[in-house]
Design a protein that fits this description.
Layout: E1 5-8, E2 15-18, E3 21-24, E4 27-30, H1 35-40, E5 50-56, E6 62-66, E7 72-78, E8 81-87, E9 97-102, E10 106-110, E11 114-120, E12 125-131, E13 184-188, H2 193-201, E14 206-209, E15 217-218, H3 224-229, E16 235-240, H4 253-277, E17 280-286, H5 308-320, E18 326-331, E19 334-335, H6 341-350, E20 362-363, E21 366-367, H7 368-380, E22 386-389, E23 397-398, H8 399-409
Parallel strand pairs: 13-14, 13-16, 14-15, 16-17, 17-18, 18-22, 19-21
Antiparallel strand pairs: 1-2, 2-10, 3-4, 5-12, 6-11, 7-10, 7-12, 8-9, 8-11, 20-23
Helix pairs in contact: 2-7, 4-5, 6-8
Length: 417
């Protein structure tokens, strides 16, 4: 079978797929959905979990316009339809429309927030669709009048002659105040150095941390009840900036348990949630997952953690890799708003202290602004999901060399370190 082809439409994200249908005297065969081929032509890997069939006995059955809270892949098993869609999402494309006549060789991918409708053009039409969330009773979603004047859909069969349900005869007209908001972003560990920097770039995100603060909700990812209460299906992106970073304390009995809970168990929980709800998981890890014997670390380098902290971070990396949509950013020596090595050295310099600093650990500082910029870059470029090593540039330095540089910039002699 050949690859299907993809055609864009005036509605962002809504695309027409021309399937490779093979006909002969017996009928036809087609690959209605083939994940690898669909991804190859640029269709989102939207993770369908349910397949539904709506059988329409008569020509003229008209259904919609329904804006269900999931993505759909629409096609036909038998018959023909006139399909029509209206963008009900917030943004410049709100109210945009698209329509097309479909037979069994045509499919349409419908993104969440786009109103979906169709009219059968033949008797015995079987309309089939894949969705990426399970239907559940009691769910509500916006609908639009089939004869809405602003959408102005040119139905082939006049609506006065069509077969329409009682419910669909009373749907409202287009109203910008009811436009569907995009899925949100969640920042976990929002009160840490990286979390604070992420808040600036990913404004209007929901914020959680172990403790509650102004605008930040408390969430313990080891608390199953608290995790279950969060509306994970409402998030498109989850940025996990939470971590246990006390390397020495991780070697103690209490520290070991806390490190594994925060650095391994919590990412595993998030990866499982990502698989279930389809959000993109961004997780930040550490160069500590390597033993330090390599001069430069590559993304495919085998894990070789030494201490408890390193082992817990490596376990988290493995867990995150099981999320279908994930960016794992490994970084080093993070510096941002809050308590950090550079600020500590500057304080010591100002207080006249001459500290002793280790010189046998070599690496690069990574400023949170740069790490956030790298995160945004991955999204903006539509980068392949996977692992990326990220740090600031410049020569590698030991902690002692960094401390001396801070002292010199603070008006002290580097020799005081």
């Amino acid at each position: 079978m050949s690859l299907p082809t993809l055609e864009t439409t005036p509605i962002p994200g809504l695309v027409v797929v021309r399937l490779d249908r093979r006909d002969d005297a017996r009928g036809f065969f087609k690959e209605n959905w083939q994940r690898e081929k669909m991804a190859a032509i640029g269709l989102p890997d939207f993770g369908p979990v349910q397949n539904n069939i709506s059988f329409n006995a008569d020509r003229g059955v008209t259904r919609g316009i329904h804006t269900e809270p999931w993505d759909k892949f629409v096609s036909l098993a038998t018959g023909r339809i006139f399909g029509a869609w209206v963008d009900m999402r917030e943004g410049d494309s709100f109210g945009a429309t698209f329509s097309i006549e479909m037979d069994t060789s045509v499919a349409v991918f419908v993104p969440r927030g786009v109103g979906n409708s169709y009219q059968t053009l033949e008797d015995a039409t079987a309309y089939t669709y894949l969705v990426n969330e399970h239907w559940r009773p009691g769910i509500s979603y916006p609908a639009l009048a089939l004869d809405d004047p602003s959408a102005a859909i040119d139905w082939p069969i006049p609506l006065a002659e069509a077969i329409i349900s009682e419910k669909d005869q009373h749907n409202p007209n287009l109203d910008p105040t009811t436009a569907i908001a995009a899925k949100r972003t969640l920042i976990i560990g929002a009160l840490g150095q990286l979390g604070r920097a992420l808040q600036v770039e990913f404004a209007h995100s929901d914020l959680v941390d172990l403790i509650a603060a102004d605008g930040v909700t408390a969430l313990d990812l080891t608390d199953a009840e608290a995790v279950a209460a969060l509306p994970w299906h409402e998030y498109a992106v989850v940025l996990n900036a939470a971590a246990y970073t006390a390397v020495d304390a991780a070697e103690t009995p209490d520290g070991r348990r806390t490190a594994w809970a925060a650095n391994a168990s919590a990412p595993a929980t998030l990866a499982a949630l990502s698989r279930t709800h389809g959000f993109t998981l961004v997780h930040y890890s550490s160069e500590y997952v390597f033993d330090g014997t390599a001069q430069e670390h590559t993304e495919d380098e085998a894990l070789s953690p030494l201490g408890v902290y390193a082992q817990s971070k490596a376990a988290g990396d493995i867990a995150v890799g099981l999320a279908p949509r994930h960016y794992l950013l490994r970084t080093s020596w993070v510096i941002g708003e809050g308590k950090n090595f550079v600020r500590t050295m500057a304080t010591l310099a100002g207080n006249g202290v001459s500290p002793a600093v280790v010189s046998d650990q070599v690496g690069r500082l990574t400023f949170t602004d740069e790490l956030v910029r790298a995160t945004r870059h991955l999204f903006d470029q539509g980068a392949a999901y996977g692992t990326y090593n990220v740090s600031n540039g410049g020569p590698a330095m030991s902690w002692a060399e960094i401390a001396r540089a801070v002292f010199e910039r603070s008006g002290r002699s580097g020799a005081d370190v």
